[in-house]
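Field reference: sequence -> structure
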Amino acid sequence: MIDLYNKALAVIFSPIIFSLFMGWMMHTPIEQREYDCCYMDFLDGFLMSIMPSIPLYLVFGLLAAYLIDRISEFYSIKRFRYFFQLFLYILSGLMPALFLGLAAGDIMWTWIFFIYCIPAAVIYYHVFLILHYREKFKNKRYKVFERNDHS
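Structure field:
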């Protein structure tokens, strides 16, 4: 598997970013709350979404990354690689959505879980891309410095 280190780091950072996003989405400011209704603070939304997202990212994130690498190698797409892989990562959101839908006991829940899995997959892909290109740039910089030291 290509870039296993960066994929593992993306599995660590992505649930945190996803949970920050979900905590922000679930938060209702105090001024907008109605009396006798259940609302979440930012921290509640963050904690509620980080706990299930870590194992889902570990299992399905790495599995999807492996499958998408294999599919990309098989088709050897160079020109629109970003869009092709982005599309595959969005489709890979169906795997945890189906799992969660079946675990919930009703297949209709799959579409609701798929709505949450799309941003999770897109966040994972972009965190991986940032880590990948950061390492690529860092390695290129070190090679330039090594050549200058030996001259």
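Note: The CA atoms of residues 15 and 53 lie 6 Å apart.
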